[in-house]
Amino acid sequence: xxxxxxxxxxxxxxxxxxQCVVLHDVDLIPIVTRNYYDCLRTPEVPTWQLSSAIDIYxxxxxxxxxxxxxxxxxxxxxxxxxxxxxxxxxxxxxxxDLKFRLASKGxxxxx
Length: 111
Hints:
Layout (H helix, E strand, L loop, with lengths): L2 H5 L12 E5 L22 E3 L20 E5 H6 L13 H11 L7
Antiparallel strand pairs: 1-3, 2-3
């Protein structure tokens, strides 16, 4: 579990707490400056993959089931599934593990 997300709202009044978190892979820098990270875009879908078009993959995905890159979560959902696992080191697997845990809780994941 990622302690930063657990601590981010500690001590803040409810009306000042962060409603979501956006997590970036370090190798995915936004090319388009119009990227819009808005937690309120669709409250009925609390989890989004924001990097569904990547330049090195000809503006597509490396494989259809990929869940990595840039993800936006409602804070409550991220906490519910215990965030990214600390069992992964280096490249690969942690994003798919998180997507599986979201599905196991019946949570939708959208691109």
